[in-house]
Amino acid sequence: ICNGNDFPVFPGSSLAQCQFLASSIKACQARGKIVTLSLGGATGGSTFASNAQAETFAQQVWNLFFGGSSNTRPFGDAVLDGIDLDIEGGSSNGYAAFVNRFRALSNGASKK
């Protein structure tokens, strides 16, 4: 629906500007649908070099898609409901640190 090849990207990044999806995300949520971010999959082979890198990535994901703040939020002010980690390839190194940091951020959030 929205990608960096067909839509503008934020300057200095490869993040597509998909703010037009914010109203649709909010409409789905208003109807009781849960909107999540999925990372990984069959072709996803990303790994973390350290726990610190994983924690930094958790903070970035939080700021871009959840309760944090960033000037480069792909979905504007829409706040997603959860995250799906589909770790099929690569190493599991750092994922516990990622989840723990993300959970800590979520526990301090006011959404829902």
UniProtKB/TrEMBL annotation:
Q: Where is the GH18 domain?
A: 1-112
**A Gene Ontology CC term for this entry?**
extracellular region
Check the record and name the SUPFAM superfamilies matching this protein: (Trans)glycosidases (SSF51445)
Which of UniProt's keywords are assigned here? Answer: Carbohydrate metabolism, Chitin degradation, Glycosidase, Hydrolase, Polysaccharide degradation
The record's listing under Pfam families reads: Glyco_hydro_18 (PF00704)
Question: GO annotations under biological process?
Answer: chitin catabolic process; polysaccharide catabolic process
Which Enzyme Commission number(s) are listed? 3.2.1.14
Source superkingdom = Eukaryota
- Which major enzyme category is it? hydrolase
What is the catalytic activity of this protein? Random endo-hydrolysis of N-acetyl-beta-D-glucosaminide (1->4)-beta-linkages in chitin and chitodextrins
Q: Which GO terms describe its molecular function?
A: endochitinase activity
> Gene3D superfamilies from the entry?
Glycosidases
Per the similarity annotation, which family is this? Belongs to the glycosyl hydrolase 18 family.
> What is the recorded name of this protein?
chitinase
